């Protein structure tokens, strides 16, 4: 067992050494540093099972040394030692991550032995608990991805059925009507039927496009979003602009499809509920993080309101998709001057 002591007084180090020897812990090796810089150097160079840290070792503040060690060496158990019998400092140290808090004038060889063994075991349990939480989160993400993949397969099937079944039937109906003579169908009725069929075909194409966007595989994410913006601009009174700063890393087709779904949901929510004149979509990549913002100048959305169940489901879907992409989403409501949605996705 390797024990590291951070203590600025040699006399206290010698006392600690004697108590550690008297504790009769087998195969224990003690190393000592009388400066905080030296302590950090040893931690970087060697592996230790436990660290004892005197609060006075780091001159910056009482607990700054503990905070620094926890930041850079989070898996090493730390026990605070001090000459001050201050329960408040002890509680603060435990909250920050120390395993225990000892007053120099009060501990003995027996107390030291118990502290070392208990601190190491507690730290092992905490690490196991953290690993279990991480495994659970990964499992939940896999479940979300599987659910989304299933939804995409179902969308693809429905889109194909629409194309192969209803779409062809409507097209054949239109051909039949347009090929009929004026004696068979009155001109006015014929034109009205053709107009209705055209409307049905437009609706069918729009629904089929939403279910299975044709651009992702051929043109990629940015071009697909540009096409989607063009479609919204044609069908609504809102002007949607797309701005891309720098080079955006290509993702796999499923990831790009999920991002496209999120953008589509955001545009649908905004145009339907916020009534904006303008929507700006911005893409930029900084290192391995893709930053996407969607901002509108509409009336804003009351995100705390449960009045609109449809909107709530849409926002829930957005959060689920972004989470499955190892990202996060933030809704910034600026009632009554619009809404900003900021996405950060690891690529």
Distance between the termini: 41 Å
CATH-defined fold name of the domain at 220-347:
Heat Shock Protein 90
Q: Calculate Rg over CA atoms.
A: 32 Å
Strand content: 15-25%
Number of strands: 10
Assign the structural class, choosing from mainly alpha, mainly beta, alpha/beta, alpha+beta, or little secondary structure.
alpha/beta
Describe this protein's structure.
The protein has 347 residues and is an alpha/beta fold. It is elongated, with a radius of gyration of 32 Å. It has helices spanning 10-22, 36-45, 64-72, 87-96, 109-179, 187-211, 215-219, 221-235, 253-274, 309-324, and strands at 2-6, 29-33, 50-54, 78-82, 100-103, 239-245, 278-286, 289-296, 327-333, 339-346. The strands form two sheets. It has a five-stranded parallel β-sheet with strand order 2-1-3-4-5, with helices on both faces. Strands 6-7-8-10-9 form a five-stranded mixed β-sheet, covered by helices on one side. Helix 3 (64-72) links the parallel strand 3 and strand 4. It has ten helices and ten strands. Among the domains are: 2-107, Rossmann fold, CATH 3.40.50.2300; 220-347, Heat Shock Protein 90 (2-Layer Sandwich), CATH 3.30.565.10. The longest helix is centred in the middle third of the chain and has 71 residues, at 109-179. Helix 1 (10-22) packs across helix 5.
